[in-house]
Design a protein that fits this description.
The protein is an alpha+beta fold and 751 residues long. The chain is 27% helix and 23% strand. β26 and β27 form a beta hairpin. The protein is globular. Residues 1-31 and 229-234 have low confidence and may be disordered.
Amino acid sequence: MRGLNRNSFWRTQIFTTAFITRIFFNSTCYAQSPSTFVDPFIGTGGHGHTYPGATVPFGMVQLSPDNGTEGWDWCSGYNYGDSNIAGFSHTHLSGTGCGDWCDISVMPNTDAIPDTAAHFKVKFSHKNEVAGLGFYSVTLSNGIKISLTATERCGLHQYYFPKGSKPVVLFNMGFMINYDSTTESAIVSLNDSTVVGYRYSTGWANVQRVYFAARTSVPFTKLHTYNVARFKDGKGGKGKVENGELIFTDLDGKPILMKVALSSVSTDKALLALKEIDGWDFNKVQKNAAQKWEHEMAKIQVKTTDERLKRIFYSGLYHTCMAPVIYSDADGQYRNAKGKILKMKKGQRYTVFSLWDTFRGLNPLFTLTQPERNTDILNSMLAFSDENGLLPVWDLSTFETGCMSGYHAVPVLADALLKNTDGLDAERVYAAMKKSAFQHIRGTQDYIKYGYLPQDSGSYSVTITLEYAYDDWCIAQVAKKLGKTDDYNLFMKRAQAYKLLFDQSTGFIRGKNADGSWHVPFDPYMTSTEGTSMYEEGNAWQYTFFVPHDVRGLAMEYGSYDKFSRKLDSLFTVTSQVKGESAPPDVSGLIGQYAHGNEPSHHIAYMYDFIGQAWKTQEKIRFIVDSMYHDQPDGYAGNEDCGQMSAWAIWSMIGMYPANPANGEYVFGSPMFDEVTIKLPGNKKIVIKARNNAKDHPYIQSITRNGAPYSKTYITHEDLLKGGVLEFVMGDKPNKSYGAKPGDWPSSVNN
């Protein structure tokens, strides 16, 4: 369903969920809670790649349906356009561009499932499907009603079978999507209500191990296990890929409940994790999951009469809590990709670090919304460095996938250190940063030798050069804070690498060979996934502007701020044609050549603030939010990418964005709510008001901070943490004098 029909359905389900939840909470105010505006189906359609299932914030278990269809738009296992369900697995990736996980797939049926059915599928209709906070339910075409909820490490299933059926629950250990493939599995019964097992697999991460324990509320009559070559009944055993069916007698319409707990260490630890759910009260577990989400949603309160905006905003805030996810057991113990059982000295170990995406907006958001959890997340990166020799690039199941360019754990850690985040060893962090900056892989040595990565030395040379240069600027700031002057000077020099690739004759940053000649042919509209491409998931139009640390330095390469402004203007107005037979589908959400559906463009609309034309930022931010975010399944312009697409919307809708993700400045855009209250560390809060706010009033006329005039086009993290009231007066015409003075501009290396 789409449009008004789907919204009508969703509002009906929200009312139902809210009514149920008011039974759990006090009915006085829950209907007005921000959480009632969360729609987990947003992003499950189109190219959003999110999943609608049951989870708690950052939980190890993501219990969600899988369609059993492979392909790019099923990276999470589910796409709203599908009409089949093949199972309900316990691990999922949110919004990624690669498909993996979907471990420990479980599927109920009304009779034994044929052993030849690798992806046994049953039809369903969205009319019989509902998702909420920590909750998912669907009634399949065979009459089975499935309801799911979860704790951090344990999923809870509730099945209602049609009367007269022969209830069966399949553990499909061979279920896989896209890159993933089972290498070994086992399932064993401990008694008539408990089974344990594991699934080892390879895929995007070469080594993945998931151990599980499952317990049913009523006894099963037998565990029937089989693989391709054999069948057997009894206690089960080990095979390359072994599936298991739990066989039950007809329960005359009464439900079967089942807990499934996960561990990265062992089945014994998974058995311990079953204790996260005490008893068989499904409603109680669902209530507790909803309360955890309620806590997250309450961190930012918005006021507006536009309920569509609320649905977009709070569904976005929901998606910012889907990754990274807990990887360790309750005691902090985990088994890493090398097979070693380790334990965090303090806190939990996390995995799923989509750093090429999230360093831009999500991780800076965590410094406000996740001050305690963020320390564990950062220390997980350092633990990864200790175990693997380098900070993570894209950590999946503690394995380095090596996906995407840059060493973007650096800006995340730098931002945290520069904001004086508790619980970090600064010298340990700095040593890990320097290891990444002097690594002997990923083109780094040639980048150091030539001052840029030559295109004839490696593909994606422009992307890599620009991203290394930014990361090096981040290292320089930490070196400065720690009093390492020589290192500061070295990395500041490396941070200027973009200038070596700027071609004044074309007005683009482009590839250069080792001998200093420009790489040809060159077409600024060309992008490719081939090894000869100069740009990764983008082209010259998008990447020319990736100099977030030195916007005015880049502007002066054009000769003046006005010329740079005209170049920025043209980005949004030229043709949206993207050339290249193998152009990546990630280059999406196009406004001219601005590609909001992919992360390299996310800071660009804010660059006008750096050159005294803040009104153009305000104009474009409003247009991007209005055109690229919707309260429908296809509501994202591209992959949600583990929270970054949502984080951009969260920042931009409240009126600001970390255009340079590690300098502690939030650059103003165009606030879209009448009022926003953000809970801050230390029991403080910042209130952001927008007077004279309206859809056709995108322009800032003036600002006051705590009642005093405020002329800057940004606010520092330090000042934001002090709390108070930031009040914007909005209008329908640009105030071109606001933000026009250089003293009010965000910082840049070259001033």
